[in-house]
Amino acid sequence: MDQTQRLKAGSAHKAASGRAADALVRDIEARIVSGALMDGATLPPERDLIDTFGVSRTVVREAVAVLASRGLVESRPRYRPVVRRPGFDAALAAASGVVGHLLADGGGVRSLYDTRIFIETGLVRHAARHARKPDIEALRRALDANEAAIPDSAEFYATDVAFHAVLYDIPQNPVLPAVHRAFTAWLAPHWTKMPRSPERNRVNHLRHADIERAIRERDADAAEAALTAHLNAAWEYVRGTFEGPRR
Amino acid sequence: MDQTQRLKAGSAHKAASGRAADALVRDIEARIVSGALMDGATLPPERDLIDTFGVSRTVVREAVAVLASRGLVESRPRYRPVVRRPGFDAALAAASGVVGHLLADGGGVRSLYDTRIFIETGLVRHAARHARKPDIEALRRALDANEAAIPDSAEFYATDVAFHAVLYDIPQNPVLPAVHRAFTAWLAPHWTKMPRSPERNRVNHLRHADIERAIRERDADAAEAALTAHLNAAWEYVRGTFEGPRR
DNA sequence: GCGCCACCTTTGGTCTGACTAAACTTGTCC
DNA sequence: GGACAAGTTTAGTCAGACCAAAGGTGGCGC
């Protein structure tokens, strides 16, 4: 029994948390996941939400702000918020604000980079044992694209990412590609600051080729060794992007 | 001393995104990570923030709501928000709202569970090769506690989680324990709905013992085999927690 | 003197109404 | 038919108000 009930059209709000905005968030959340608000559609105008849910504009705006910070809607400053159906990407995007701070010091970067090595180690082992023919072909294509891009460092970076992305796709688990995108997004600032050159690119391409060959030959240990050698070598370059100005 | 100087800070905010609340979020965020607002401290009252930052209450409330949804502050309905220094846990907590929806269907659970298997596979391999003596002792202690708890299913669950937690600790990467906590939090609803019995517990303990032995004997392949057998068997029980009412 | 309860103050949650500026829509003119 | 101008929405923000719950304070009874 609540004191001042929201007697309006609002359905099952108030009870849960005592905070109307939270209830609204849950309500809109539900409409998004249920498909009532479809991906890509714009949210109704704030004034409409006001009388749809029977709450004040304050509450509506608070709710929308929270939804935006959770990645369920995308809200550019003066435009209508756009609904984004949540995926594992949205989940990781929600985390990225905090991660940004953790990356402020080298320790955070190292932890994240180690995590990436850890995961990709598992990925190449998995690939060596379970990759099917189309996977290996995709890997081959990515490798060729990588080779072709050696002279162009910007292009090389893109094909580099794409090559690793193939590894994340092989297990056919939607969480993993999302993790990869999160990694690249988080580490990109360091990656782009890294010195690059066709020679470096050539070395990296050769490492990729080692990985591809080991996977093709179904040699999990060799694949793991090639991968760790590749990423550990790359770390030396990543480290330079924040240790220089710091030490 | 800066009632009138507020203009300067105001313009600094405005420049970034056009939205005052976003700027406020960044500002408070910075104060938290810099330590100006210490972990566990309460946020100043909203009215104080109003004239500290020279914005209206609307903006302040919106900012606090966003901070709360990001896990930087903890805000219970009628209490003062409490500052929480962000860690990798906070990052994953921020994601959990979205993850909740992804777990609504079995596919999401399966994806997450597969991810867990994938990671723990890597963990036991890592442990078999790199665990130091104290790690192995910790694993042993966790295993003993697990055995002692066989008669008590609730206690067994706790020791089960603790056993796996040791695996996540061994690489000494702060990201991994956070991931483990996230996994257990997300999968707990299913886990607790699972039928449990001393017989089941005994089987699980034996699997844990297999894992521990393989790690102690530095046999990565055996450790991986024991782990996958353990988790795949457990999956059959997890599946029952949502396939029953669904099919 | 000590603990408990009523009272007052503070503060979070919400609402109303208003204003501005940017986006969207419409209509007009060349 | 397309570019430009005026009108209409609407997000962003502010100010002021009210309520109810949390927290502190003093007096009362024991």
Mean pLDDT of chain A: 85
- What sort of overall outline of chain A do the alpha carbons produce when their principal axes are compared? elongated
Distance between the termini of chain A: 61 Å
Give Rg of chain A in angstroms: 23 Å
Largest interface: pair, residues per side: A-B, 48 and 48 residues
Number of helices, where a helix is a run of at least 4 consecutive DSSP H or I residues of chain A: 10
**Largest sheet report of chain A:** 2 strands, antiparallel
Task: Count the beta strands of chain A.
Answer: 2
Task: Record the strand order, biggest sheet of chain A.
Answer: 1-2
Going by helix content, strand content and strand pairing, the class of chain A is mainly alpha
Which oligomeric state applies?
homodimer
Beta-strand content of chain A: under 5%
Helix content of chain A: over 70%
Low-confidence stretches of chain A: 1-16
Q: Order of helices and strands of chain A, N to C?
A: HHHEEHHHHHHH
Report on the architecture of this protein:
2 copies of one chain form a homodimer. Chain A is an all-alpha fold and 247 residues long. In chain A, 70% of the residues lie in helices and 2% in strands. Chain A has helices at residues 20-34, 46-53, 57-69, 88-102, 106-130, 133-148, 153-169, 175-193, 198-216, 220-246, and strands spanning 73-74, 82-83. The longest helix of chain A has 27 residues, at 220-246. Chain A binds a DNA duplex (30 and 30 nucleotides) through residues 3-4, 18-21, 45-47, 55-59, 61, 75, 77-80.
